[in-house]
Design goal:
The complex is a heterodimer of chains A (597) and B (463).
Chain A: E1 3-12, E2 15-19, E3 28-32, E4 37-45, E5 48-53, E6 65-72, E7 74-77, E8 85-86, H1 93-100, E9 119-123, E10 130-131, E11 136-141, E12 147-151, E13 155-158, E14 161-164, E15 168-173, E16 176-178, E17 183-189, E18 192-197, E19 200-203, E20 212-214, H2 225-230, E21 238-242, H3 249-259, E22 264-270, H4 274-283, E23 300-305, H5 311-329, E24 334-340, H6 342-355, H7 369-378, E25 381-384, E26 390-399, H8 409-417, E27 420-421, H9 426-430, E28 443-444, H10 447-457, H11 462-486, H12 493-510, H13 524-546, H14 551-555, H15 559-569, H16 576-595
Parallel strand pairs in A: 8-23, 21-26, 22-23, 22-24, 24-26
Antiparallel strand pairs in A: 1-2, 1-6, 2-5, 3-4, 3-6, 4-5, 7-19, 9-11, 9-16, 10-15, 11-12, 13-14, 15-17, 17-18, 20-25, 25-26, 27-28
Helix pairs in contact in A: 5-6, 7-8, 11-12, 11-13, 12-13, 12-15, 13-16, 15-16
Chain B: E1 6-9, E2 13-15, E3 18-22, E4 32-36, E5 42-51, E6 54-59, E7 72-75, E8 81-84, E9 91-94, E10 110-113, E11 124-125, E12 130-131, H1 136-139, E13 144-145, E14 152-154, H2 160-170, E15 179-188, H3 190-202, E16 209-215, H4 226-239, E17 244-250, H5 252-265, H6 279-287, E18 291-293, E19 299-307, H7 316-324, E20 327-330, H8 333-337, E21 350-351, H9 354-357, H10 367-391, H11 398-415, H12 425-436, H13 449-455
Parallel strand pairs in B: 9-16, 14-19, 14-20, 15-16, 15-17, 17-19
Antiparallel strand pairs in B: 1-7, 2-3, 3-6, 4-5, 4-7, 5-6, 8-10, 11-18, 12-13, 18-19, 20-21
Helix pairs in contact in B: 2-3, 6-7, 10-11, 10-12, 11-12
Classes of the chains: A alpha+beta (597), B alpha/beta (463).
Bound molecules: adenosine-5'-triphosphate and magnesium ion.
């Protein structure tokens, strides 16, 4: 497959210059040096190629050979992806551990998908039937949760030529046990039988095609109250979660990976901590998906290119992850991608650009940073697949702004392309108000589109309830400016009730402890029930205050503590307890009111 | 990489810590270099970039005194290495691993590449064993666990050295025979190095310590190799010899400045404040050499120390560090001026691995909730204090006044302790509850009603 394509001219960190590089093409995957380190051609000038090398280049010498592979950086698509952990180039880290031990060494060449494992193939087409690109050939059970639908490849490679699969006829199918390398079907193409493997390849830097885009109007339910109720994201939508160190980006993304109602989660650890990937590997097999009752790992794929792994592979890891996501989307699944952190990916771009001596734009980042970000987020969406099914890719990207200051290039350019902004706030994090999503600064452009789903499935005045609660929080924010100057006691009771209610909303609703077994996940029904009872406290409280009752009396009602604690005291499946709290609230309010009639 | 070493006489150019040697052949990227000055003195360096025509060499000990014509450059055909063995315990080395305690080169069967290799995330064991440091602000609020990387963010003149030494001597990381300290000094003054040596000696840890000292008067570029030397030895001690290793590295700000020096000599495009764009990756290649590995006995716990220029936590050095480490202990000048030791500012401090190291069966069942409550209440103290400064203390509501008292007591009773005071976790948590009990029960929402019944003290002074 590989042929000599030049020799090393110079080595500068991850960037290698190759002389006499006639045969290779731009974006081609190459093998660099005697150790066959993986690299990608990123620039061609005359006979000189510039290669970014995905592995540590220590010891590489000018004069060593470089080999072409004939194709671009690609991933293998087929059963065996789910439940696995790969590096940024889709190398299986668990297998690597069995080969090289606890430390990762360079130059290991292991195919991404297990070549030995047998999968039971159930065809869903018969010989003579017409199929086309992206339609379903059959399926295998990849995990207890995921039926892996084998798709007709988009392009067909026959004897060196490649053409698009249009309408072709199935010549044969072979049900039964197969490995990913086995041929499981064949089609008649121009009167020649062409065989199809269980697995296929796809170049990671190209978006996979679909038939049609749909509007994202179904919310991705995350079980996180501040997100679902106040700043919802839709299936097929995009969100950015920027914040300084320690403000909760990773915990929030772990929460979404655990609890959101996607069919599949692709978690990309891009230039972050090794222990955070280990945590997922340890926790997810033990956590149970609330919908299916199966371990969460059975719907999860991890891409781990930690901060101490080579920087060029970090750049590739985002594309590897999103390509796997698109593949499952094409099977008709809702896939959620967590990318932690997109800033590290942007820094990898910056580092390579710097070594190429490209002219920098802002803060040393290359001028093409915005277009790369746009391309990445554009790969999200809810679509009709080529096979005619509905599927989606949702992308949530963490952003790590230097100094926690959002006015920097990665945050600012990301905001141009995402429609949901969950702004993490350092002072909330310092007070251990988590998730530290600032409710004044954040926004979601999906509010209008998901409103229909909520009013139909959960509560018909969902939007009204949400907006009234938001109104209280905004008014509190405004009043706090005054409180800082004169103290809360100086405010009229009506305004102090706003402060009291906002405190209840902050402590009892917005704040959600990821470590608490009940609080970690809240169903949409419970979210609405909680918010309704809190807003009832406010709305009836306002009438009572208007009759002359001092706010302190409302604050001292014994039910207040229950309102604040129902988040972790009332399990999701015992919502009648919230009704009981509501009844008790009404009783106490009635009593108080009767004193001022 | 070719094994035999090659020697060249004369260099093409010298700029800052860099020199360029032309006409080189068979030189590998990142290989070790020895530079022989006109006076015969030897220095160590490494290849920063290489082409068919020339190699750029970074000279760790600086280039001063070198000449174009008569400088000799020897390439070793292998990366910079350090010997690893148990014999290194009790020894003192310079920043490049040469003994400076008068003793011989340690006997070692093996030398290792100082760059190490990344730990496979599948091989890591998640750190979760509580380490009692005896310091309430850490144990109670920012708990350290075995295998964690937890830096101290300090400022010049603050007692970070005293604190680090107190932690090193009090921390219950392991039984004495399994515990060792690897200490890497980068650009610190001799007195500070001596202070640590004495404190290690007092606590009996010196014979189980390995010290790498690059002092303020030593060449600055040498600092780039020092932490890597130290961590290579630490990895050997932890993952081969089964020791629980505490690595103290100070001062990371000096390290980063050395990195900046090399970068600017190479005329690289800087990111923020002149620091190179790859500083995050570079720091990660140090801080990630830490943790536990499944099936192996030892562990590496890192405690890097850095001084924030201008006490600015958004400066690139603390900022990038915070993005990599598993939390941070932040020291405050304000508390220090109030004579509070340790002057730990709990609000910006954080231990990310705390959640798995505390609670029932590890510290105490009420620990997570009372810690969270103390955070929330102390955050409120800030607001009340600024209000009090506007309207006067007398004008505050009764509840707000209780917050002021709580804040005082939290700082002077909970955070403050003696530099030799070793509090156990029960004492720490009890003090925490005593302080929290200054607030009325209705202010405590992060703790459960049952915990209130069990731990809340009826206030002696009425609220
Ligand atoms: N929802 C939550 N519930 C409880 N604790 C939380 C929550 N979110 C964040 N935290 C706390 O905040 C700490 C830091 O969060 P996290 O690791 O997610 O920060 P980060 O923004 O990813 O930081 P970095 O950029 O450095 O990776 C956690 O270790 C945890 O203690
Ligand atoms: Mg994070």
């Amino acid at each position: 497959m590989s042929s000599r394509a030049g020799s090393i001219e110079a080595v500068d960190g991850p960037v290698v210059t190759v002389a006499d590089a006639q045969g290779i093409s731009i974006a081609e995957l190459v093998l660099v040096g005697d150790d066959h380190l993986l690299g990608e051609v990123i620039r061609l000038e005359g006979n000189t190629a510039t290669v970014q090398v995905y592995e540590n280049t220590g010891g590489l010498e000018p004069g060593e050979p470089v080999y072409g592979t004939g194709g671009p950086l690609s991933v293998e698509l087929g059963p065996g992806i789910i439940g696995n952990i790969f590096d940024g180039l889709q190398r299986p880290l668990e297998v690597i551990e069995t080969r090289t031990g606890a430390f990762v060494h360079r130059g290991v060449s292991i195919p991404p998908l297990d070549r030995q494992r047998q999968w039971l193939f159930h065809p869903s087409v018969r010989p003579g039937e017409e199929i086309h690109r992206g339609s379903v050939l059959g399926s295998v059970f990849e995990s207890d949760l995921i039926e892996h639908r084998l798709l007709v490849p988009v392009r067909l490679h026959m004897g060196g030529v490649s053409r698009t699969m249009l309408a072709e006829r199935v010549a044969a199918v072979t049900p039964g046990e197969h490995t990913v390398g086995d041929y499981v079907a064949s089609v008649d193409v121009d009167h020649r039988e062409t065989r199809l493997q269980m697995m296929q390849r796809w170049p990671v830097r190209h978006a996979r095609p679909y038939r049609q885009r749909l509007l994202p109007d179904v919310p991705l339910i995350t079980g996180q109250r501040v997100i679902d109720t106040f700043f919802p994201i839709a299936k097929g939508g995009t969100a950015a979660i920027p914040g300084g160190f320690g403000t909760g980006k990773t915990v929030t993304q772990h929460q979404l990976a655990k609890w959101s109602d996607a069919d599949i989660v692709v978690y990309i650890g891009c230039g972050e901590r090794g222990n955070e990937m280990t945590e997922v590997l340890i926790d997810f097999p033990m956590l149970v998906d609330p919908r299916s009752g199966k371990p969460l790992m059975q719907r999860t794929v991890l891409i781990a290119n930690t901060s101490n792994m080579p920087v060029a592979a970090r750049e590739a890891s985002m594309y590897t992850g999103v390509t796997l996501a698109e593949y499952y989307r094409d099977m008709g699944y809702d896939v959620a991608v967590m990318a932690d952190s997109t800033s590290r990916w942007a820094e990898a771009l910056r580092e390579i650009a710097g070594r190429l001596e490209e002219l920098p734009a802002e803060e040393g980042f290359p001028a093409y940073l915005p277009s790369r970000l746009a391309e990445f987020y554009e790969r999200a969406g809810r679509v009709v697949t080529l096979g005619g099914m509905n599927g989606s890719v949702t992308i949530v990207g963490a952003v790590s702004p230097p100094g926690g200051n959002f006015s920097e290039p990665v945050t600012q350019n990301t905001l141009r392309f995402v429609r949901c902004f969950w702004a993490l706030d350092k002072s909330l994090a310092a007070a251990r108000h988590f998730p530290a999503i600032n409710w004044i600064e954040s926004y979601s452009e999906y509010l209008d589109s998901v409103e229909g789903w909520w009013s139909k499935n959960v509560f018909n005045d969902w939007r009204g309830l949400r907006n009234r609660a938001m109104g209280v929080l905004q008014e509190e924010n405004h009043l706090q400016q005054i409180v800082k100057l004169v103290g809360a006691d100086a405010l009229p009771d009506e305004q102090r009730l706003v402060l009291e209610t906002a405190r209840m909303l902050r402590e009892g609703f917005l704040q959600q402890n990821a470590m608490d077994p009940i609080d970690t996940y809240t169903t949409p029904q419970k979210q609405v029930a909680m918010l309704r009872s809190m807003m009832r406290f406010y709305e009836r409280g306002r009438e009572i205050v208007a009759r002359g009752a001092p706010v302190i009396r409302l604050r001292e009602l014994s039910i207040v503590a229950h309102l604040i604690r129902m988040k972790n005291e009332v399990p999701n499946d015992r919502l009648t307890e919230i009704d009981d709290i509501g009844l008790a609230l009404d009783r106490q309010l009635n009593e108080l009111e009767s004193e001022y009639l | 990489m070719s094994a035999a070493s090659k020697e060249y006489i004369g260099v093409a150019s010298i700029r800052g810590p860099l020199l360029v040697v032309e006409g080189t052949t068979d030189i590998g990227y990142d290989e070790m270099v020895e530079i022989i000055g006109p006076d015969g003195g030897r220095r160590i360096g490494r290849v920063l970039s290489v082409s068919r025509k020339a190699a750029t060499v970074e000279v760790f000990e600086g280039t001063s005194g070198l000449t174009i014509r008569s400088t000799g450059v020897r390439f070793f055909g292998r990366p910079l290495t350090v010997p690893v063995s148990l014999e290194m315990l009790g020894r003192v080395f310079d920043g490049l691993g040469r003994p400076i305690d008068g003793g011989p080169e340690p006997l070692a069967r093996e030398r290792r590449d100082i760059n190490g290799s990344p730990i496979n995330p599948t091989a890591r064991a998640y750190p979760s064993e509580f380490i009692q440091t005896g310091i309430s602000a850490i144990d109670g609020m920012n708990t350290l666990v075995r295998g964690q990387k937890l830096p101290i963010f300090s400022g010049s003149g603050l007692p970070h050295n005293v604190l680090a030494a107190q932690i090193a001597s009090q921390a219950k990381i392991a039984r004495r025979e399994e515990f060792c300290i690897v200490f890497a000094a980068m650009g610190i003054v001799r007195d500070v190095a001596t202070y640590f040596q004495l404190r290690f000696e007092e606590s009996g840890a010196l014979e189980n310590s390995v010290l790498f000292l690059n002092l303020a008067e030593d060449p600055s570029t040498e600092r780039i190799a020092t932490p890597r030397m130290a961590l290579t030895v630490a990895e050997y001690l932890a993952f081969e010899a089964g020791k629980h290793v505490l690595v103290i590295m100070t001062d990371m700000t000096n390290y980063c400045e050395a990195l900046r020096e090399v970068s600017s000599a190479r005329e690289e495009v800087p990111a923020r404040r002149g620091f190179p764009g790859y500083m995050y990756s570079d720091l990660a290649s140090i801080y990630e050499r830490c943790g536990r590995i499944r099936g192996m006995k030892g562990s590496i716990t890192q405690m890097p120390i850095l001084t924030m220029p201008n006490d600015d936590i958004t400066h690139p050095v603390p900022d990038l560090t915070g993005y990599i480490t598993e939390g941070q202990i932040v020291l405050s000048r304000e508390l220090h001026l109030k004579n509070i030791y340790p002057p730990i500012d709990v609000l910006p401090s954080l231990s990310r691995l705390m959640k798995d190291g505390i609670g029932e069966g590890r510290t105490r069942a009420d620990h997570p909730d009372i810690a969270s409550q103390l955070y929330a209440s102390f955050a409120r103290v800030r607001e009340v204090r600024s209000l009090a400064s506007v309207i006067g203390e007398e004008e505050l509501s009764a509840v707000d006044k209780s917050y002021l008292r709580f804040g005082e007591e939290f700082e002077t009773g909970f955070v403050a302790q003696e530099a030799v005071e070793d509090r156990n976790i029960d004492t720490t948590l009890d003090i925490g509850w005593n302080v929290a009990s200054i607030l009325p029960k209705t202010e405590l929402f992060r703790v459960t009603e049952q915990e209130i019944r069990q731990h809340y003290r009826v206030p002696e002074r009425g609220v």
